[in-house]
């Protein structure tokens, strides 16, 4: 019955823990595996009593008094038969060359693993603990401590003899000890003490909190985090103690060091072991729970927690329940936590099992993400740590991610991820395309297919194009635009489009796409026909890009109908390929388009299309009257008689007036202005432009009986015709609007003219005087005559070589010099002398300014 109840309890707690793990979404911090190989064989026949860990090996003590040295995989490398009873503790120095062992029968052995030195002693009581000096390998540090009812320190003297001294006794059995540097920490029934080996002083006593717990059933766990930080776990209490130096002023009779508790908190379960992990703690806990069915207390699986200590509490980082063999029979004292400082390995030791906990690496992190189907995070983690991962490949994770997205029906995301994951692997791309085809999702992957480096087989691209052609013309057109034409067999796709056009011959999307395919295939003629039929904007670009001017000579009307402005610009820019004559001939039946072309030609160059200027008169008159007059003004090649005839036929007054004036018939032009337009201002302006007195006379005669015209003339002719001529002819009694204002304006204009003339006269006189004075000053200056000057007549030096010989030289203001005898003799009619050179060149005569004689 008891056995059945035990099985029921076990199944209950296992199912509970499994459900907790399933619900938890938090990634564990540690991973676990059993220490197997030789350990499995040992624990089948024996039970683990204690273990200690070195970076190089493990040392395991059993209930049958054996000590095994193991490698990190659990293989046995050495065996020692120490005692017939339980090994209570094993201690190693830092070098791993010396070992201390104590057992339940009181035996203590300290010996070298690679040397002959050893210490053997059997006490009359069980020895629970032993600790060798971490630097035992040094001659000066041959020390170790043992603990039973009292704590003894053994030291080897200079005569190689061992002597002992009692460090502490009288407070029950010593049950735990840890030696770090010069400090020894131990626990007895009353609390924890720390002893300074250097000063030979005990520096603290940390009392036990819960004295109700049996110290033999719930032993104290000690752990040095570093050389001055001790972590104490006892019952459910954790204390972190810091050893500090006492200030010299506070020494007196006190130890040189003291201990300060920097953190203290309670845990949920009983503590079986402690270990540091960076600034966190790893805690092994003994758990008891109550069954909901039987309401009986049972031993649950032990827990390994990672906690973050705070000054008065702690924060749980992770918590794992460990399924160790025989956990239903174990007590708190049966569990031990040992650790390797160098590798962050934690060993959970129980009588029937040893479990190794390791910090999870990046591979483990990726495993967990994949297990939770967090593929994107797994892929990102692998990319970031690709140099550190060993068991995973980025490609494998990526492929699993794509499969996962496909299974979820997220086809577009899966296709997008293919770009990054598949990269340049053409074989994988083709495999994925076929996979998308099987599920009918070729459209999803089409935007992401590689279009160069790598290039897939043409069949892949054709397969996708056919898929779109069957169901989505717009999507098909988009792919044809975006994909280079060399990715697929163009002729195959062209034929497929033609087949579809048989069913829907007017489909603009298919026609446009077929034109693009023809362009890729360099079949520009067919492409051009389709573009013109569709009136597509790319037709001009196609013509320019592929020089299709020979193909459009008979399609000029179509081009002009589509976009006359672009067509004309293109034709004019390429006159060497399509002549003006050819264009005009093609547009003969479409005079409105012919006019557009010739008008733009005339705007570019007034002379290129001169042979068509006569034709243009009719075209402007018919289709573009506003530009007719500018054309007549700018053209020097149009026949005026023909133009006049057309304008008169159509009663184009302004154009007729211009032509009459240009042909010299100003009086007829003026008559049309006055009689047809009745515009006095225009008539006056016209008379001003012609500047003909007879024209003014005609205008005055026409206006003499028209008061509005007289007003206009009075206001405007003051500067061209004497207003008196007009005023004398005005009939007496005629009412002229604004006559007074007009007369005032005439007087003001006259007065203004007088003022302007006087002002100009003053300026002219002042400038003339200034220039005369400047000329006088200039002419008064001397002229340099030296040996380099020559006579401009005889070309010999102006000065004689013999300075004693008399000479006569004439120098003019123009700086030309002559011998006096070389100048002509002045006549009686013109006694003044002039420079022969300047007079001959009509520069104005230069008069003599200086005559030199000697």
What general outline do the C-alpha atoms trace? elongated
Number of strands: 33
CATH class of the domain at 360-456: Mainly Alpha
Helix content: 25-40%
Evaluate the radius of gyration.
Answer: 60 Å
**First and last CA, distance:** 167 Å
Order the strands across the largest sheet as they lie in space: 1-30-29-28
Provide the residue-averaged pLDDT. 85
The CATH architecture of the domain at 360-456 comes to: Alpha Horseshoe
Subcellular location: Cytoplasm, Cytosol; Early endosome membrane; Endosome membrane; Late endosome membrane
Main location: cytoplasm
GO cellular component, one term: early endosome membrane
Family: Belongs to the VPS41 family.
Structure notes:
The structure is a single chain. The chain is α+β, with helices and mostly antiparallel strands. The chain has a domain at 360-456: Serine Threonine Protein Phosphatase 5, Tetratricopeptide repeat. The chain contains 29 helices and 33 strands. The strands form nine sheets. It has a four-stranded antiparallel sheet with strand order 1-30-29-28, with helices on one face. Strands 2-3-4-5 form a four-stranded antiparallel sheet, covered by helices on one side. Helix 9 runs antiparallel to helix 10 (473-482). The longest helix is centred in the C-terminal third of the chain and has 42 residues, at 739-780. Residues 1-23 have low confidence and may be disordered.
């Amino acid at each position: 019955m008891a056995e059945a109840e035990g099985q029921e309890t076990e199944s209950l707690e296992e199912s509970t823990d499994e459900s907790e793990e399933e619900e938890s979404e938090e990634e564990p911090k540690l991973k676990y595996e059993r220490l197997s190989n030789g350990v499995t064989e040992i624990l089948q026949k024996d039970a683990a009593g204690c273990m200690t860990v070195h970076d190089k090996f493990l040392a395991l003590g059993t209930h049958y008094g054996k000590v095994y040295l193991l490698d990190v995989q659990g293989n046995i490398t050495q065996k020692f038969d120490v005692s017939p009873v339980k090994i209570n503790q094993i201690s190693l120095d830092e070098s791993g060359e010396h070992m201390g062992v104590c057992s339940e029968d009181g035996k203590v052995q300290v010996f070298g693993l690679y040397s002959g030195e050893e210490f053997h002693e059997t006490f009359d009581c069980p020895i629970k603990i032993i600790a060798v000096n971490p630097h035992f390998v040094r001659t000066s540090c041959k020390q170790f401590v043992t603990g039973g009812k009292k704590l003894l320190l053994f030291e080897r003297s200079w005569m190689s003899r061992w002597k002992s001294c009692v460090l502490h006794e009288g407070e029950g059995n010593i049950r735990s000890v840890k030696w770090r540097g010069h400090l020894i920490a131990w626990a007895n029934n009353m609390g924890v003490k720390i002893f300074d080996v250097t000063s030979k002083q005990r520096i603290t006593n940390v009392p036990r909190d819960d004295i109700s717990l049996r110290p033999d059933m719930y032993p104290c766990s000690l752990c040095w985090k570093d050389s001055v930080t001790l972590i104490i776990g006892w019952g459910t209490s954790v204390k972190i103690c810091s050893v500090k130096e006492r200030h010299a002023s506070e020494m007196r009779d006190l130890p040189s060091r003291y201990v300060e508790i920097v953190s203290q908190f309670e845990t949920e379960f009983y503590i079986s072991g402690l270990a540091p992990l960076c600034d966190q703690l790893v805690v092994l806990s003994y758990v008891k729970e109550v069954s909901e069915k039987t309401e009986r207390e049972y031993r649950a699986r032990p827990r390994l927690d990672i906690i973050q200590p705070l000054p008065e509490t702690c924060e749980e980082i992770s918590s794992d329940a460990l399924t160790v063999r025989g956990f239903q029979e174990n007590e708190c004292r049966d569990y031990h936590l040992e650790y390797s400082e160098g590798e962050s390995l934690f060993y959970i030791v129980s009588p029937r099992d040893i479990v190794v906990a390791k910090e999870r690496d990046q591979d483990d992190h990726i495993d967990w993400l994949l297990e939770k189907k967090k593929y994107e995070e797994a892929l990102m983690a692998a990319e970031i740590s690709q140099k550190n991962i060993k068991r995973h490949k980025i490609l494998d994770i990526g492929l699993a991610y794509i499969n996962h997205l496909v299974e979820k029906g997220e086809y577009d995301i899966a296709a997008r991820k293919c770009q990054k994951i598949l990269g340049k692997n053409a074989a994988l791309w083709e495999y994925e395309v076929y996979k998308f085809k099987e599920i009918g999702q070729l459209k999803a992957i089409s935007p992401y297919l590689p279009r160069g480096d790598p290039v897939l087989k043409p069949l892949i691209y054709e397969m996708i194009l056919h898929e779109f052609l069957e169901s989505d013309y717009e999507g098909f057109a988009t792919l044809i635009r975006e994909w280079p034409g060399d990715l697929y067999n163009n002729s195959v796709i062209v034929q497929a489009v033609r087949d579809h056009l048989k069913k829907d011959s007017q489909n603009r999307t298919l026609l446009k796409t077929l034109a693009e395919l023809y362009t890729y295939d360099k079949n520009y003629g067919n492409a051009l026909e389709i573009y013109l039929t569709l009136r597509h904007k790319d037709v001009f670009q196609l013509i320019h890009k592929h020089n299709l001017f020979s193909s459009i000579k008979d399609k000029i009307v179509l081009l002009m109908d589509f976009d006359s402005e672009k067509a004309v610009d293109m034709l004019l820019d390429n006159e060497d390929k399509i002549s003006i004559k050819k264009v005009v001939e093609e547009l003969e039946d479409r005079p409105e388009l012919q006019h557009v072309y010739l008008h733009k030609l005339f705007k570019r160059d007034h002379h290129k299309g001169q042979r068509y200027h006569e034709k243009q008169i009719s075209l402007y008159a018919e289709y573009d009257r506003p530009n007719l007059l500018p054309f007549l003004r700018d053209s020097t090649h149009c026949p005026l008689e023909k133009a006049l005839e057309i304008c008169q036929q159509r009663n184009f007054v302004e154009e007729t007036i211009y032509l009459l004036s240009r042909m010299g018939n100003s009086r007829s032009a003026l008559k049309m202005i006055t009689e047809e337009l009745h515009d006095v201002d225009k008539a006056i302006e016209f008379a001003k432009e012609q500047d003909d007195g007879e024209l003014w006379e005609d205008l005055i005669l026409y206006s003499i009986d028209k008061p509005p015209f007289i007003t206009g003339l009075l206001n405007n002719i003051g500067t061209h015709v004497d207003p008196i001529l007009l005023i004398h002819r005005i009939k007496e009694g005629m009412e002229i609007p604004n006559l007074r204002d007009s007369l005032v304006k005439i007087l003001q204009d006259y007065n203004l003219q007088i003022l302007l003339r006087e002002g100009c006269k003053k300026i002219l006189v002042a400038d003339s005087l200034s220039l005369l004075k400047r000329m006088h000053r200039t002419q008064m200056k001397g002229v340099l005559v030296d040996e380099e000057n020559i006579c401009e007549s005889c070309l010999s030096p102006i000065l004689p070589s013999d300075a004693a010989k008399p000479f006569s030289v004439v120098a003019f203001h123009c700086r030309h010099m002559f011998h006096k005898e070389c100048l002509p003799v002045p006549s009686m009619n013109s006694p003044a002398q002039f420079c022969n050179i300047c007079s001959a060149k009509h520069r104005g005569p230069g008069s003599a300014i200086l005559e030199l004689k000697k």
